[in-house]
């Protein structure tokens, strides 16, 4: 079952609107918009079992790491791993790009708050995917407070994240990876060492759904409840509540 549950990404967005939408879609030049349609109540009305989510994520991931953000740089990319998805922008209009390369250049220009996130591994919870890696994401907006870690009950706000380099095209209902410099995160990656896109079980408005799980979540450290739950899931000692 497919549900669009985001809001169009814009430069001016209130904190309430940001928290009320799981993902933020790319901003588009006039006449080129392919916006998402939000589902009322997403993600605040999502219900999930953290233990089950931890179990599902641990089973799917090749690498799970507790990491610290060492640096944020401006050499980020948008859509370079998924160029075909940007063909929708190609056209004959005066503002439309004529090639995929031009479309990707335009997309990067629109993401003027994009960053390359440099992670340093603090602890390997599963696998050894190296001591450092990078992803392309977005710098948190000025009104987002500090680098405070999320409560385990906030996992629903970190579903369906994506690396900007793999952003599938205009109108995609996903949430950008965001990171504060110096903050700690629990990051899940696949066998290709990319941000994990693995389904987890949730309930939304009484319907059972599968969406990609929380693969990049801010945490307090090695004793954080989410880190501890995932560590136990890797060890096979987690039992879902239902």
Write the layout of secondary structure elements.
Blueprint: E1 6-8, H1 15-19, E2 23-25, E3 46-47, H2 50-60, E4 63-73, H3 100-110, E5 114-126, E6 132-138, E7 161-162, E8 175-176, E9 184-189, E10 199-204, E11 207-212, E12 216-219, H4 225-235
Parallel strand pairs: 1-2, 7-8
Antiparallel strand pairs: 3-10, 4-5, 4-9, 5-6, 9-12, 10-11
Helix pairs in contact: 2-4
Protein described:
Helix content is 16%, strand content 27%. The chain has helices at 15-19, 50-60, 100-110, 225-235, and strands at 6-8, 23-25, 46-47, 63-73, 114-126, 132-138, 161-162, 175-176, 184-189, 199-204, 207-212, 216-219. The protein has a 5-stranded antiparallel beta sheet, with helices on one face.
Q: Which structural class best describes the helix and strand composition?
A: alpha+beta
Count of DSSP-assigned helices? 4
Span from first to last CA?
22 Å
Helix content: 10-25%
- The pLDDT mean sits at 83
Please give a quick description of this structure.
This protein is an alpha+beta fold. The protein is 16% helix and 27% strand.
């Amino acid at each position: 079952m497919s549900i669009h549950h985001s809001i169009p990404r814009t430069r001016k967005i209130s904190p309430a609107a940001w928290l009320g939408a799981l993902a933020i879609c790319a901003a588009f030049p006039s006449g080129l918009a392919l916006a998402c349609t939000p589902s009322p109540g997403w993600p605040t009305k999502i219900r999930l079992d953290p233990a089950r989510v931890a179990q599902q994520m641990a089973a799917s991931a090749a690498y799970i790491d507790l990491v610290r953000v060492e640096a944020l740089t401006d050499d980020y990319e948008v859509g370079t791993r998924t160029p075909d998805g940007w063909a929708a922008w190609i056209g004959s209009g005066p503002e439309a790009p004529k090639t995929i390369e031009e479309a990707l250049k335009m997309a990067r220009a629109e993401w003027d708050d994009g960053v390359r996130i440099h992670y340093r591994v603090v602890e390997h919870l599963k696998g050894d995917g190296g001591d450092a890696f990078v992803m392309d994401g977005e710098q948190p907006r000025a009104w987002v407070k500090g680098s405070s870690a999320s409560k385990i009950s906030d996992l629903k706000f970190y579903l369906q994240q994506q690396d900007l380099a793999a952003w599938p095209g205009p109108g995609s209902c996903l949430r950008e990876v965001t990171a504060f410099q110096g903050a700690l995160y629990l990051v899940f990656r696949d066998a290709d060492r990319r941000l994990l896109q693995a389904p987890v079980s949730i309930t939304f408005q009484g319907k059972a759904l599968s969406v990609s799980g929380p693969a990049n979540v801010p945490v307090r450290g090695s004793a954080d409840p989410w880190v501890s739950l995932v560590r136990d899931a890797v060890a096979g000692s987690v039992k879902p509540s239902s």
